[in-house]
Amino acid sequence: MRVERPWTALAAASTAAHHGFELSSGIGLVWQPELGLGGASVLWGTQIPAWIALAASGSRRWDKVLAVWSGASVGAAVVHFLIWPWRRSRLGIPVLTEAEGLSASRLPAYNALLYVWFAASVLSVAREMPRRERPWALLGLATLPLMGLSAKHHFKWLKRQATTNPSWWNKGVQLQQPSPSPQEATASVPGVA
Questions:
Q1: For residues 120 and 18, what is the distance between their CA atoms, to the nearest angstrom?
Q2: Which residues contact 56 (CB under 8 A, 6 or more apart)?
Q3: Measuring CA to CA, which residue among 76, 37, 45 is closest to residue 157?
Q4: Bridge partner residues of 5 (DSSP)
Q5: What is the pLDDT of residues 93-143, one digit of tens each?
Q6: 90 to each of 87, 93, 94, 95, 136, how far by Cα in Å?
Q7: Angle CA 68–71–75, to nearest 5
Q8: Beta-carbon contacts of residue 112 (< 8 Å; ≥ 6 apart)
Q9: SS3 for 43?
Q10: Per-residue pLDDT reduced to its tens digit, 16-58
Q11: pTM score
Q12: Confidence class of residue 176 from pLDDT cuts 50, 70 and 90?
């Protein structure tokens, strides 16, 4: 099957890769605090395949929707660099030095994924959306402040969940929890002074 809008399909696939990367790293799923794991899974498991199908079809009927989704993806990639610490690489581009509780060993792949996501989303709007529909991408991009608030809320919620409700989807934060010192460990054991 020929994909009529490959950059748009890649923006959607990169969104799925981002969400899958975070979930498999044990930091939950985007919108999980608000919708629960099941609800967030249904949301993304429905929206992303629809996005890919619409990109593949190339129908102009969906230009506005696709432009909004691609614009939101630009914002979603950018928001990571607005809320997490970063430094300039040898090439002069920003790279995250910390994010979402990910281990340092996972950050290079995460940074690469964010750049692919950003580039595919920008190229989707610039190359595959008719000029008259491109302003709709600004509506998607305008969700950036909401995404920033959501990401901050998600990480606070995730840390609480890792403590009160440890599970496979928050294992990344559990691994980040500091081990108690020997004094703290013995102080918490009844009968040990």
A1: 13
A2: 1, 2, 3, 4, 5, 9
A3: 37
A4: none
A5: 999 999 988 889 999 999 999 999 999 999 999 999 999 999 999 999 999
A6: 10, 8, 10, 10, 35
A7: 135
A8: none
A9: helix
A10: 999 999 999 988 899 999 999 999 999 999 999 999 999 999 8
A11: 0.86
A12: low
Instruction: Give the burial class of 32: count Cβ atoms within 10 A of its Cβ; 0-12 exposed, 13-18 middle, 19 or more buried.
Output: buried
What is the domain partition of the chain in residue ranges? Answer: 6-187
> Which residue carries 């009844």 as its tokens?
190
Does the structure show a pLDDT above 70 at 7? yes
Q: What residues contact 145, with CB distance under 8 A and at least 6 apart?
A: none
Contact by Cβ (8 Å): 152, 144:
no
pLDDT tier, 168 (very low <50, low <70, confident <90, very high otherwise):
confident
Residue-wise pLDDT tens digits, 111-121:
999 999 999 99
* Length of the chain (residues): 193
Joined together, the tokens standing for residue 82 give 């607005």
| Residue 60 tokens, joined | 């102009």
